[in-house]
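ugh finaly. both done.
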Amino acid sequence: MKNSYLAGVFLAFISGIIWGFSGVCGEYLFTNKHFDPFWLTSVRLLASGLILFTIVFTKSKFKVFAIFSDRSALFDLGLYAVFGLALCQLTYYFTISYSNAAIATTLQYTAPAMIMIFVCIKERNFPTFREFIALVFATSGIFFFATHGNFQNLVISKEALIIGLLSALCVVIYSIAPIKISQKYGTNAVLALGLIMSGGVFWIFYAIFGGEILPSIDFSAFLVICAIVFLGTICGFSLYMIAVNFIGPKRASLVASIEPLMAALFGHFWLGSKFVFFDYLGFTLIILCAVLLSKK
């Protein structure tokens, strides 16, 4: 049990690092290559889903389709695919396009508070003292990082704020919706089908409304897209879903809140972002949150 718990914390931590890097990759494509967030979301989801599905099908054959005979599970899969995976990625990328990766991840990580409230209401209990302190560390770290200690210092557009909070709500959905079906049909099978469903729907809508199907892609953009697909989507979501199965959505989302820190660090070393004292204070609090939750 203890090993499973530590493994869950570790996997959630790694998923946060991967997502932080993936977010900066998206920022690079939007600012330097002028990509459409809708196109990138569609390609990311569909390509990742097809690759992961091939891997799952090779191992389990037609068992991967078993979920389609279960109406209740199919509803959860659709909820997870559209309102979890698809809208989470789309709103996240649009937030980046209106601001940057660090702000987008900061807004998205208001999700742990939403998840904790939801789970506590559902289970009719209060968070443990350690969970409460970890939540305080996480939210305080995000506050200092985003505002430098003063809400008036949060320079962000209304579009970025609203869409960023919607992204956080979608995090709640993809953290909770697939738990039962993942345990029954397998994490990777559910993720693969969810990615294909969400990516396919978005791609059809994008094509119908006149989106550019194949924009100009140079070698550097191709490498960044591959990193987003393989690392940010396949690896990131797989590890996070496994972590949720081990330690639950509350702890997994809190540990993965390392993502804003990693987005800021990758942005600093790659895109030249600058930091001040309050940034480092926020980073420290977020790391303390992860450390606190690593002890059961």
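ok and the 2nd:
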Amino acid sequence: MKIIVNGKEAGTKEKGCALCGATWGEYYDVIDGENLFFCCDYCALEFKNMVNEVKNRTRWSKIYELVINGNYYTGRTCIAKSEDKEYKFYVKFNDEAGIETFKELT
């Protein structure tokens, strides 16, 4: 999965956390068969919850690219891509890494 966070490629220790882009931390998790870098377990859980919500709403089996803009405080405006389809959405998480707000965007 190609991941772009605030304009920069992410998902590896060298490039930054797959959700927020931070380069500190040492947390990894397997998402859709790929070992992705996260700065912490909260970012990993938020990312998993976000990916699962997109897959549930779109019925996609796999997300090929995810463009994420924003942060924890303002929420994130995102574009998920799978093959020739794309899905735009806004997501904001709560203090327990659950989804507080999820809106489909046009």
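summary for the 2nd one i guess: The longest strand covers residues 85-93.
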